[in-house]
Design a protein that fits this description.
Blueprint: H1 17-32, H2 36-48, E1 53-54, E2 61-62, E3 66-69, H3 76-81, E4 85-88, H4 90-93, H5 96-113, H6 116-123
Antiparallel strand pairs: 1-2, 3-4
Length: 128
């Protein structure tokens, strides 16, 4: 069997490598794009934080601590606005059990002044 028309089986002219790189760069730029409001929130958060000191979890002194929004993802802005930010060392920042404990701890502190329903309205679910 002899096939004469190959236009439907594959793209006869491959794209140049430069075009592929430009498309990938454009995709990366759209993923990393952050809104102006979000950048402003982070700048204001970082102004008030002293990034030297003791880790909020283990209590050891470090010259560089990472600010960690306790409730991440879509609740990251709400965490910054409601001051649910902890300064953690790298070891504690990567430990899932520590992060789970922080969520429970910050919810308990919030519920001392407010109700659980208020917390659920802000974050979306209860961690207790």
């Amino acid at each position: 069997m002899l096939v004469k028309d190959l236009s439907n089986s594959f793209h006869p002219y491959p794209k140049p490598k430069d075009m592929k790189k430009k498309q990938k760069e454009a995709e990366i730029k759209t993923i990393n794009k952050v809104s102006k409001k979000h950048k402003k929130l982070e700048r204001n958060r970082d102004k008030n934080l002293n990034k030297k000191g003791k880790c909020d979890n283990c209590g050891k002194y470090y010259k560089k601590l990472d600010p960690h929004e306790v409730y991440g993802g879509s609740n990251r802005k709400r965490s910054i606005q409601n001051n649910f930010v902890a300064l953690l060392c790298r070891n504690c920042h990567n430990d899932k059990t520590v992060l789970k404990e922080l969520k429970e701890k910050y919810q308990k502190e919030f519920e001392k002044e407010h109700t659980r329903e208020d917390f659920i309205k802000i974050i979306g679910k209860s961690y207790l």
